[in-house]
Predict the structure.
Amino acid sequence: MMVTKELVERLAALSRLRLPREEQEKMTGELEQILGYMDVLKKLDTSGAESLAESGSLKNVLREDEVIPSQDREELLRNAPASDGETFLVPKAVE
Amino acid sequence: MKELLKLTALELGAAIQTGEVSIREATQTALAAIEEREGELNCFITQTADRALERADALQAGVKEAKSLLYGVPMALKDNICTQGVKTTCASNILGDFAPPYQATAAQRLEAAGAVCLGKVNMDEFAMGSTTETSYYGPTRNPWDRQRVPGGSSGGAAAAVAGRECWYALGSDTGGSIRQPASYCGVTGIKPTYGTVSRYGLIAYASSLDQIGPLGRTAADCAAILDAIQGKDSRDSTSLDAPAGGLLASLTGDVKGMKIGLPAQCFGSGLDAQVERAVRGAAQVLKDRGAELVELDFPVMDYVIPTYYMIAAAEASSNLSRFDGVKYGWRTEGYDDLTDLYCKTRTQGFGSEVKRRILLGTFVLSSGYYDAYYKKALQAKEVIREAFRSAFQTCDLLLTPVAPTTAPRLGESLSDPLQMYLSDIYTVSVNLAGLPGLSMPCGFDGAGLPIGCQLIGPALGEAKVLGAAHAFQLDTDYHKRSPWEKEVG
């Protein structure tokens, strides 16, 4: 697997990260090394193995839809970097 | 007072019950040890001395009605376990001031059992690392040799127990994060069967693999702690409706007829000769007590590291998207718009190992690569689970090394991430299969560093795993050595 600078840039953008050039170059080399090692998995025959996602061995856990007390709003907002006492504050996102 | 530090958690609990020791005395002893040793070890991110003393006095009033054998025993919690009103940083800058509005179920259950919490202990940032060096709050040092790492990611927990700063701690284990530091620090730690301890309030790294578990002085201590924290919790939908409790009572020391498998591929190249000798020595001790040793073929070892790192990184990239500088945690200063706020906060808030795993996870999940990497890893996980199922058709337990070597020097692992990932070879498969795995001290190398061995059981086989470990500890004293005395104590 060849990891290019462009690929790392795209992954960073998808991850909402912005790597300084030096870090980006370092990551490019490291990811190539790591993914190169991961390629060993291609040798494993998995034709008989259903993936967990497909096998359906996990069951949904359902419960009654009842109203129960939730967290206190004031307490939840106490950890927010910016709030007006009722909601989280963020820069304007929609014109 | 220092004599108290030599007791196991159960011995201290018994002394508290008889009135021989007050809970305040035990707490003060631990606080004095922390005060004396923290400058060297750096196990704690947050200490809660005042709260602990207040709590000690409140508990003392109820000591006669105590229901738990651990009532009044001081302990520490890994800093990814949420504690209401007490800072929970995950060893990250991005959660530097985060004081959770709720308590993790495991912490709440220990509290109900009468635990005194001394504080929150150090770890690799977001539990991503094998050395506790990726912590934003500086590395923890190994009590046996201050130039070496304690292991990770629950390195603060293991070093605090080994360094006699507390009697036990809760850690978390996603790919070996309880077992490997337990091994490097010479303590006993168990990752329970997936789903038996609630993950409610455990800050997620890889949800399908994460599990909370204890680190203590003995297998019996770990059994008592699991008895207190295991059990169904409706707030964690992956928690199992399985019977809980009774583990401590099940420890008889009897391993007669027990079949213990030694997977050939776990004793191959890459394993340090001194570690191999100690682990095989542990097998011999169990054999001498009546267990039967079986050599076993376990052909999937080459695939466990890639499978684990792809699945763990994929889940991490998804789980860590919640850290955006909006709802809680740290926010960058100066930004142009919402996207800029997200990017700057995350770029400055996360350390390099966390970013590396987010990028790796984003890669394996991205379109064009999903099938070849992530889906392949999920299929490989099924092959690995099948290999364990087949092994447990002929064996009761498996015995393996915990790590290929003893604790490396500080700084050695940071420069080569892939090399660090490879050191998790013996532990990650246990998480992929959701099984219980325990690490216990079984020797020392030429430099005087502890060596651990791992016992792996079938799903819900905690009683077998702890039973064999307890039997081993009845005949050995490796678990009684202390780095402060370098002899039994």
Observations:
- Residues 3 and 32 of chain A are 5 Å apart (CA to CA).
- The domain at 5-42 of chain A is CATH 1.10.20 (Histone, subunit A).
- The two ends of chain A are 42 Å apart (CA to CA).
- The mean pLDDT of chain A is 89.
